[in-house]
Amino acid sequence: GAGVSQSPSNKVTEKGKDVELRCDPISGHTALYWYRQRLGQGLEFLIYFQGNSAPDKSGLPSDRFSAERTGESVSTLTIQRTQQEDSAVYLCASSPRGLFYNEQFFGPGTRLTVL
Amino acid sequence: KQEVTQIPAALSVPEGENLVLNCSFTDSAIYNLQWFRQDPGKGLTSLLLIQSSQREQTSGRLNASLDKSSGRSTLYIAASQPGDSATYLCAVRDFGNEKLTFGTGTRLTIIP
Predict the structure, then answer these.
(1) How far is B80 from chain A (nearest CA, A)?
(2) pLDDT class for A6, splitting at 50, 70, 90?
(3) Torsional sign, CA B72, B26, A59, A17
(4) In chain B, is it the N or the C terminus that has fewer CB atoms within a 10 Å radius of its CB?
């Protein structure tokens, strides 16, 4: 079946503008994760959704970052008033359930460049 | 706070050689450990997942081991091929936590 998809694949924006990044998880996967990878750094966890439970937002770096998920489907990560340090690859992952033995499957990412 | 380290940061080996990539983590209270590969401009491809109760997992030419008490995992690649060239990442999932904590990766180059 189809894997995790993300759009756009690339996004260039000006400092101060808002951006929305989209993630379509694998069908049937109830858990969804957002990570970011800044140049030369490891992946950083941002936010986690599991079914209808309250999301774990502990990784969001500032209140300019927010994310929503509609049921167990699409998720949108929004960055308001973008800054140059927001430039990174934003990766989405999904998992069949948020239980310890399940793998996370990653999408191709969205490369965000803030000028 | 969990910290994951991968050494070396980069490795080059001739085609056909066997090789080992290393991963260490500071907190042994983990659910599982996952190895990924990342190709330039691409997302992550899951290679192997080892549960905390397991010692190793194998898939084709890949074998991953886990020594939870010492906070170490290795990824063994047999008979390396140019197509194995990529960045290899390890990530751990802690007890009571849904997120993965990643190492910074080992960039592997297989020389034809």
Answers:
(1) 25
(2) very high
(3) negative
(4) N
